[in-house]
Design goal:
The chain is an alpha/beta fold. Helix content is 32%, strand content 29%. The protein has a single domain, classed as Rossmann fold (3-Layer(aba) Sandwich), CATH 3.40.50. The chain has seven helices and 15 strands. The strands form four sheets. Strands 1, 4, 5, 6, 7, 8, 10 and 12 form an eight-stranded mixed β-sheet that branches.
Length: 215
C-alpha cells in the first residue's frame, strides 16, 4: 500500500527490541512503550496544520506559528492506551476518544463493546489518530476506520507498532482507492506473518497482556 509508512529511527528500533524481548518485565515494557509513544507522536504530529501567531518576547514583538485544527486521539482498547501518553503530553489540547473492541478467538473478527467520540463540527479540517499497537488480521483497524470514515472525517492516521502482511492485504482489499486517500498508516515494523492463532510473528506477544501484566 502506498499509504503505509515504516518509521525509521534508531531509538524506535532500540525500544521496539526491548518490547519484543519476552524476558522484559511489565515495568520495563510500560516504560519502553511510553518512550516509543513520544517518538512516534513527534513524527505523526508533523502532519498538523499551523497558522501564523504573533507574540511578544521580553525584547520585541515577533511572529511564530500555532496549531489550530481539532485533533482527536482514538486508542483501541485496551492495548491502544499504552501509546497515548506521548500524544497527550506533546499536545495537551488533543481530545481523547475511545473505542473498545475484542477479538473473537475462533473467528478472529472484532466485536465492539464501547465507543465514545466527541462532537466535532469541523470534520473536514479535523485530524484523527487511531492507535492500535498490533495490526494482525486488520479486522480491528478496518472496523474502526469504517466507523470514522462513515462519520465524515477525511484526515485519519493509523498508528501501530507492528503490522502483518496479512493485515495490509485485508485493508487494501476492503477500501477503495478514494477511501484510502483519506487515511495513512504509520508503523514501526512490518513483520513476517501471522501464525495459526492470528498472532504476529516474530511480534511481541499480546501487547495488552504484557502492558497490564495479565499474562
Amino acid at each position: 500500500m502506498n499509504n503505509v509508512s515504516v518509521i525509521e529511527h534508531p531509538l524506535i528500533d532500540h525500544y521496539l527490541t526491548r518490547l519484543r524481548d519476552k524476558k522484559a518485565p511489565t515495568a520495563e515494557f510500560k516504560v519502553s512503550l511510553d518512550r516509543l509513544s513520544y517518538l512516534i507522536a513527534a513524527i505523526c504530529y508533523s502532519e498538523l496544520k499551523s497558522e501564523k501567531h504573533h507574540v511578544s518576547t521580553p525584547l520585541k514583538k515577533t511572529s511564530g506559528t500555532t496549531v489550530r485544527q481539532p485533533v482527536v486521539l482514538v486508542p483501541i482498547l485496551r492495548a491502544g492506551l499504552g501509546l497515548t501518553r506521548g500524544f497527550i503530553d506533546l499536545y495537551p489540547e488533543i481530545i481523547v476518544s475511545h473505542i473498545g473492541l475484542y477479538r473473537d478467538e475462533e473467528s478472529l473478527k472484532p466485536i465492539k463493546y464501547y465507543f465514545k467520540f466527541p462532537a466535532i463540527r469541523d470534520k473536514k479540517n479535523a485530524r484523527v489518530f487511531i492507535i492500535d499497537p498490533m495490526i494482525a488480521t486488520g479486522g480491528s483497524i478496518i472496523f474502526t476506520l469504517e466507523y470514522i470514515l462513515n462519520m465524515g472525517f477525511k484526515n485519519i492516521s493509523v498508528v501501530s507498532l507492528l503490522l502483518a502482511p496479512e493485515g495490509i492485504k485485508a485493508i487494501e482489499e476492503r477500501f477503495s482507492v478514494k477511501e484510502k486517500r483519506n487515511f495513512h498508516i504509520y508503523t514501526c515494523s512490518i513483520d513476517e506473518k501471522l501464525n495459526q492463532k492470528g498472532y504476529i510473528v516474530p511480534g511481541l506477544g499480546d501487547a495488552g497482556d504484557r502492558l497490564f501484566g495479565t499474562l
